[in-house]
Design goal:
The protein has 399 residues and is of the alpha/beta class. The chain is built from twelve helices and 13 strands. The chain is elongated, with a radius of gyration of 56 Å. The relative contact order is 0.06. GO terms for molecular function: exodeoxyribonuclease VII activity; nucleic acid binding.
Length: 399
């Protein structure tokens, strides 16, 4: 019996446990506790029951394959192998797979993703786009050989024939999610008016590509409105919530996408009848109105009214002319009176009576002898002209 170091003992125990085949592929049922999600992508947690617990480690390579997010207190089935973490001398379960216990794995993943995307706003009504009322071209992303495309073509041919742009799509299997996304991208580059994306019925596993987050985001980011037509009426996928319109079946999607040709013809006939009826009523009303006017204004009555208006116009013209002449005469008389009054005070009349006006050479008017210097030259302005004189002397005031 030898003496072991701690490391040696732990390694020995590890070899014993890992060599036991029954412990290398084992399912353990329990409840998650002490869950730590490391930034490296690894999960560290314990699973427990009423009286015991065991440590677990789930590495990033395993976690990336999970279709749901482990949560604290979740009941799970853990598949893995028993191992020893020799640094601590702690045995643990190295996880290879985790499945919810009591609830289907895919259904649990569906509920978690639906809740997260809904909180993010991908399903908000304000982001839903209206479908064009009269589309000219419809893009379809589905299998070229499945029943869905045949149902869509049959309904469109019956209701409202339009151009169909089919983008063959893989709708089942591991590569189907990427194929769906690629088809949506290609159709968004075309001149289609809307897109129908979907497939016929199947199990939850068959429909799962339409529950992938990346498919839901591709539908949400589509430039064109998208109708999701996946499975049967009772089937719901994440893509149904992300799409602008959810159709219960591919046939229903075709009915939603286009109007009914029969209904359109019936509606047009109804509009035509309403237009004809309205036009007939308008013509009849106008005819009655013309008859009414004709009864009130006969040709003789019209001529009489015209003569009266002509006579009245002549009278107004005569009165206007007479009034204008009277005003002109009055204004001429007023102008003559003002001219007479102005002429009475005119200095020219004073000159006509033998007076004159004395001015200096500078042009100023001389009003008294006090303003004249001896020998100053003056200009005398008479009625018929002017002359220059020279002042010699002042005479007495009574000269």
């Amino acid at each position: 019996m030898g003496i072991y170091t701690v490391t040696g003992l732990n390694n020995y125990i590890k070899n014993v446990l890992t060599s036991e085949k029954a412990l290398q592929q084992i399912w353990v049922e329990g409840e998650i506790s002490n869950l730590t999600k490391h930034r490296s992508g690894h999960y560290y947690f314990s699973i427990k029951d009423e009286s015991s617990q065991v440590s677990c480690v789930s590495f990033r390579s395993t976690n990336r394959k999970l279709k749901f997010e482990p949560e604290k207190d979740m009941k799970v089935l853990v598949f893995g192998s028993v191992n020893v973490y020799t640094v601590r001398g702690q045995y643990q379960l190295q996880v290879r797979d985790i499945r919810p216990d009591g609830v289907g794995e895919l259904y649990k993943a569906f509920e978690q993703l639906k809740k997260r995307l809904e909180e993010e706003g991908l399903f908000a009504p304000e982001h839903k786009r209206l479908l064009p009322r009269y589309p000219r071209k419809i893009g379809v992303a589905t299998s070229a050989t499945g029943a869905a495309i045949h149902d869509i073509l049959h309904v469109l041919q019956r209701r409202y024939p339009v151009d169909i742009l089919l983008c063959p799509t893989t709708v089942q299997g591991e590569a189907s999610a990427d194929s769906i996304i690629r088809s949506l991208e290609l159709l968004n580059r075309t001149d289609a008016d809307l897109i129908i994306a979907g497939r016929g019925g199947g199990s939850l596993e068959d429909l799962w590509p339409f529950n992938e987050e990346k498919v839901a985001r591709a539908i949400y980011n589509s430039r064109l409105p998208v109708i999701a037509a996946i499975g049967h009426e009772t089937d719901f996928t994440i893509s149904d919530f992300a799409a602008d319109v959810r159709a219960p079946t591919p046939s229903a999607a075709a009915e939603i996408a286009v109007p009914d040709r029969t209904e359109m013809v019936r509606h047009i006939d109804a509009l035509r009848q309403r237009m004809e009826s309205a036009l007939k009523n308008r013509i009849l009303n106008q005819k009655k109105h013309l008859e009414y006017l004709s009864g009130r204004i006969s040709p003789d009555r019209y001529r009489e009214l015209l003569n009266q208006r002509t006579q009245h116009l002549d009278e107004v013209t005569y009165r206007l002319t007479s009034r204008t002449e009277y005003i002109m005469q009055t204004k001429v008389a007023e102008l003559g009176a003002l001219a007479g009054r102005l002429n009475a005070v005119s200095p020219l009349n004073t000159l006509d009576r033998g007076y004159c006006v004395a001015q200096s050479d500078e042009g100023g008017t001389i009003t008294g002898v006090i303003d004249i210097e001896k020998g100053q030259s003056l200009q005398l302005k008479f009625r018929d002209g002017c002359c220059r004189v020279e002042h010699k002397e002042n005479l007495d005031e009574g000269c």
